[in-house]
Amino acid sequence: MKDLTDCLYVNWNALETSEEYNIMRKYAKNSRRYSLGYSLYCFVALYLFLSMSLIPQLLDVVLPLNKSRPILLTYPGYYFVDQRKYFFYIFLHAIVAWEIAMTGIVAHDCIFVTYVEHVCSMFAVIGFRLEHLFYNRNDQVKTINTNTDNAYRKRIAFIVHAHRKALKYTQLLEDTFNVPFAMQILIVTIGMSITLLQISTFFMLKMMQQNNSNILESMRYALYVIGELIHLFFLSFEGQKLIDHSLQIRDKIYNNCWYKVSIKSQKLIILIMIKTLRLSFLSAGKIYIFSLESFTMVRPEDYYK
């Protein structure tokens, strides 16, 4: 984690022009916007999920019955006390416990988003340099002069070095988050499988016995599944951005006037073209690749098979 942060500062200091700085700043703002939105969603969803435990207590006050409704704990647990008498103490304990757990998850994912947006900005800066490879620094007119081929070779060599740094940063990011995300995906898969099984069980009981007492419980389980899918989509969306940005380098090279420079300069460009043939991606345990294509293959009905 420290190496990723150190490289982030080094890459910011290596910027040459104000245009490159604006590109990096744009992606930094995106990471902050995504992190704030994701954090807000997680904590709002958490409090909505926990507040469903108060619905039976609220209904006992608004629409009382001859007997108290069954209590609904935030999660199954045994506190070795009267759960109805100490319900609000148990509820406060659950809030504190879930807030601590959610804070760790949100912090981990927001740091991941920050690093992914940074490596995407690195690829964007490389693409900008490739697009303006044959532009004069003082104007915006594309000019190719064979007499200054040495200057072009220096620019291309600098771009090759920057592209190699971006690939190394991506690999470091993959090595850092590979195992944690593998454990996270494993826990999510097991949790969703058990949750969907419970939802189907409650649905069958409702159909057979016309029992409405477990409606709130089944709704909470359904919200949990939806929340996990949104969480997985968020990570897959960031992984897809990285894949798209790594592939855009190849398009930027193809659309440029690389064929008008000398053979020596073309050989340097080929080094980047060869590297772009291999996708840059992030995965969980080298099994699940974070991309929108992988996310669309995750269907709730698959957990019943």
From TrEMBL:
<keyword id="KW-1003">Cell membrane</keyword>
<feature type="transmembrane region" description="Helical">
    <location>
        <begin position="181"/>
        <end position="205"/>
    </location>
</feature>
<keyword id="KW-0812">Transmembrane</keyword>
<keyword id="KW-0675">Receptor</keyword>
<keyword id="KW-0552">Olfaction</keyword>
<dbReference type="GO" id="GO:0007165">
    <property type="term" value="P:signal transduction"/>
</dbReference>
<dbReference type="GO" id="GO:0004984">
    <property type="term" value="F:olfactory receptor activity"/>
</dbReference>
<dbReference type="GO" id="GO:0005549">
    <property type="term" value="F:odorant binding"/>
</dbReference>
<feature type="transmembrane region" description="Helical">
    <location>
        <begin position="86"/>
        <end position="105"/>
    </location>
</feature>
<keyword id="KW-0807">Transducer</keyword>
<feature type="transmembrane region" description="Helical">
    <location>
        <begin position="268"/>
        <end position="289"/>
    </location>
</feature>
<keyword id="KW-1133">Transmembrane helix</keyword>
<dbReference type="GO" id="GO:0005886">
    <property type="term" value="C:plasma membrane"/>
</dbReference>
<dbReference type="InterPro" id="IPR004117">
    <property type="entry name" value="7tm6_olfct_rcpt"/>
</dbReference>
<keyword id="KW-0472">Membrane</keyword>
<keyword id="KW-0716">Sensory transduction</keyword>
<feature type="transmembrane region" description="Helical">
    <location>
        <begin position="112"/>
        <end position="130"/>
    </location>
</feature>
<feature type="transmembrane region" description="Helical">
    <location>
        <begin position="34"/>
        <end position="55"/>
    </location>
</feature>
<protein>
    <submittedName>
        <fullName>OR22C protein</fullName>
    </submittedName>
</protein>
<dbReference type="Pfam" id="PF02949">
    <property type="entry name" value="7tm_6"/>
</dbReference>
